[in-house]
């Protein structure tokens, strides 16, 4: 604590700079897999700080390594930096300048936090017994995501433990939430192509109506979660799109359903995939239609390791107060942080960003999404405390 406190105070001195960087990123957001200026900017800052910087890691990722003055373990901190295809509808001067693209998930804050933390740690380099790897990840929002190719390209080589945080709009500013075990869901998407037989709306008997088959299928699919999955194990199946036909009196030839499946357990995940295929094939066959399924396996579930979770909990308590560190109820959203946790121990935690005084009350991916920027201080301090635990001996 003796050596940690000055580091925490130092981070506060970088706050204005972190806000400025966050707002710059916010004004010029870039979509997943299309990031160019964002990684360039990140790499330039880390180089200026004197870190070893690798660019184009796994595609568009940036990995900066700070080598401590003494030997020791390697701690990785991760921030994502992609934005979303959403039109910014906030009335603030740092509103997105790119039409139809917006940082509506807070990844701009994650990035600025990591840079702030790097600034503090660079000054303490000689005292650190070990290394810190700053993983700036592209494309978190769109599967297959950036984490997997970055890992394949070596971003976790020699890493002993990894931490990441997400600022969370639904949690009041000032709180930190942690949980060990399953925290965010596995995400699988599907597209079902139904092939019927088109014809005149007045002669349904000589057609195979894909709209009726599709409607039945939507309902039958709802029975997978309600009748086949263990009620004590969470699962969701949502059909989010049903496209077919465009006239009053024409029975179309085809219909297309798109949807998403969320689960935690590997068993449940496999069961859902299997059941989706069975129910689709059986429903279509019964009506004389054909089905083709594209099953798009997405991110696995985020499964936090016990010890690192405890360490983050302990790190956060003196920073926000013990009563402000709360257990996190798992959510069905997905995160490709899951891949890092399959390789090395670590934990992913939430930092509250909701503040009605700042109009930061809208959910993630909403056109008016915003959060209390001071969440960066909390996230950054927790990171510093975690690093100190491992590297300040
Ligand atoms: Zn998001
Ligand atoms: Zn996000």
UniProtKB/TrEMBL annotation:
Cofactor binding mode and count: The Mn(2+) ion enhances activity.
Pfam families recorded: M20_dimer, Peptidase_M20
Give the InterPro entries listed for this entry: Amidohydrolase, Bact_exopeptidase_dim_dom, Peptidase_M20, Peptidase_M20_dimer
The answer to whether UniProt assigns keyword Manganese to this entry is yes
Residues annotated for Mn(2+) binding in this entry: 105, 107, 141, 166, 365
User: Which superkingdom heads the taxonomic lineage of this protein's source?
Assistant: Bacteria
**This protein's UniProt keywords:** Hydrolase, Manganese, Metal-binding
Signal peptide residues are: none
The GO molecular function terms of this record are: metal ion binding; N-acetyldiaminopimelate deacetylase activity
Give cofactor(s), names only.
Answer: Mn(2+)
Picking any one GO biological process from the record gives:
diaminopimelate biosynthetic process
- Annotated Peptidase M20 dimerisation domain residues: 190-277
* Hydrolase in keyword set: yes
Q: Which NCBIfam families match?
A: amidohydrolases
How is this protein named in the record?
Peptidase M20
């Amino acid at each position: 604590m003796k050596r940690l406190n000055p580091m925490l105070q130092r981070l506060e001195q970088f706050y204005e700079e972190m806000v400025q960087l966050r707002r710059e990123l916010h004004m010029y957001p870039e979509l997943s897999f299309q990031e160019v200026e964002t990684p360039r900017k990140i790499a330039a800052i880390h180089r200026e700080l004197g870190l070893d910087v690798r660019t184009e890691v796994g595609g568009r990722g940036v990995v900066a390594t700070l080598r401590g003055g003494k030997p020791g373990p390697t701690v990785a901190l991760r921030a994502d930096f992609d934005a979303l295809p959403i039109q910014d509808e906030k009335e603030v001067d740092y509103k997105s300048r790119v039409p139809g693209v917006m940082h509506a998930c807070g990844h701009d804050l994650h990035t600025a936090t990591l840079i702030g933390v790097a600034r503090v740690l660079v000054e303490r380099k000689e005292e650190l017994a070990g290394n810190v790897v700053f993983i700036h990840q592209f494309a978190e929002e769109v599967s297959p995501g950036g984490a997997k190719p970055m890992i394949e390209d070596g971003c976790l080589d020699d890493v002993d433990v990894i931490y990441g945080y997400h600022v969370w709009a639904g949690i009041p500013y000032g709180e930190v939430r942690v949980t060990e075990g399953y925290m965010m869901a596995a995400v699988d998407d599907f597209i079902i192509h139904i092939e019927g037989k088109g014809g005149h709306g007045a002669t349904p008997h000589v057609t195979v109506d894909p709209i009726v088959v599709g409607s039945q299928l939507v309902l039958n699919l709802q029975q997978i979660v309600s009748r086949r999955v263990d009620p004590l194990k969470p699962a969701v199946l949502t059909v989010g799109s049903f496209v077919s036909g465009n006239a009053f009196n024409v029975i179309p030839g085809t219909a297309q359903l798109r949807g998403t499946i969320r689960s935690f357990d590997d068993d449940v995940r496999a069961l859902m995939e299997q059941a989706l295929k069975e129910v689709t094939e059986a429903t279509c066959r019964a009506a004389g239609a054909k089905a083709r399924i594209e099953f798009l396996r997405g991110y696995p579930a985020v499964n936090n390791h016990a010890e690192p979770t405890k360490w983050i909990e302990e790190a956060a308590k003196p920073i926000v107060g013990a009563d402000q560190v709360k257990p996190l109820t798992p959510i069905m959203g997905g995160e490709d942080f899951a891949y890092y946790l399959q390789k090395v121990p670590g934990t992913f935690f939430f930092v509250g960003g909701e503040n009605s005084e700042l109009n930061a009350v809208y959910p993630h991916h909403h056109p008016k999404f915003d959060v209390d920027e001071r969440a960066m201080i909390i996230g950054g301090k927790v990171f510093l405390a975690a690093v100190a635990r491992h590297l300040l001996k």
